[in-house]
Design the sequence.
């Protein structure tokens, strides 16, 4: 079945450094790739997404890139801050009501 | 985005009992989903709650264990039946954003502990 692999499972960076989280997906028909941030004890929050007709999208300190040929997409966080510490989930789905497949998550620690 | 609430926020239950979790949305939405998130794990889809018809369950989840109601476009319930300690988890409802893509917005979750 459909699968999304996410790496690394844990990432520790110094405040101000960049963090990169990578995901690969198996369903070539996937066309929507959201990223969620989940702080401890809170609900997952959509932070950025990218659609298959776009290769890159940026929103302030976060950016996502998509390589459809390789079925690979990444989250980039620049100038990390302690409040970026959370679990990040990538996901993939098709438009039109198909279910969303989530990656296993990356626990990001930003050390002050 | 829609405002989503869940009740209860947490509960501690005895094995063999059942718990019904409610999900309320402040606007009409076509698609509602129920997820389970076990401690330290990712989100696993239990079922899609369809208004006016039976829910669509994912592999490994059955209606007898997780009956779902969807009486209208703003409300759904998930029941965890005949609970065992393995059902201890966070249960989250979510709604799709309605653009045709599956951006999802999650409720605050229900933390269930089964003794």
Sequence:
């Amino acid at each position: 079945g459909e699968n999304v692999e996410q790496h690394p499972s844990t990432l520790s960076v110094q405040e101000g450094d960049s963090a990169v989280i990578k995901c690969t997906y198996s369903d070539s028909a996937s066309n929507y790739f959201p990223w969620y941030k989940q702080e401890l004890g809170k609900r997952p929050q959509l932070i950025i997404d990218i659609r298959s007709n776009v290769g890159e999208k940026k929103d302030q300190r976060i950016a996502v890139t998509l390589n459809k040929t390789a079925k690979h997409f990444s989250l980039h966080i620049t100038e990390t801050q302690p409040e970026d510490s959370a679990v990040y989930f990538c996901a993939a789905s098709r438009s039109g009501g198909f279910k969303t497949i989530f990656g296993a998550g990356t626990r990001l620690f930003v050390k002050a | 985005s829609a405002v989503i609430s869940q009740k209860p926020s947490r509960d501690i239950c005895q094995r063999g009992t059942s718990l019904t979790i409610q999900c309320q949305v402040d606007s009409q939405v076509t698609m509602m989903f129920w997820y389970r998130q076990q401690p330290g794990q990712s989100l696993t889809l239990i079922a899609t709650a369809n208004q006016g018809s039976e829910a669509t369950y994912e592999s490994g989840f059955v209606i007898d264990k997780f009956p779902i109601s969807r009486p209208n476009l703003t409300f759904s319930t998930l029941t965890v039946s005949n609970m065992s300690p393995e059902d201890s988890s966070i249960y989250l409802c979510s709604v799709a954003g309605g653009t045709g893509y599956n951006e999802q917005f999650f409720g605050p979750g229900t933390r269930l502990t089964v003794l």
Remarks:
- The mean pLDDT of chain A is 94.
- The interface with chain B takes residues 1, 31-32, 34, 42-46, 49, 51, 89, 93-100, 102-105 of chain A (CB under 8 Å).
- DSSP finds no helices and eleven strands in chain A.
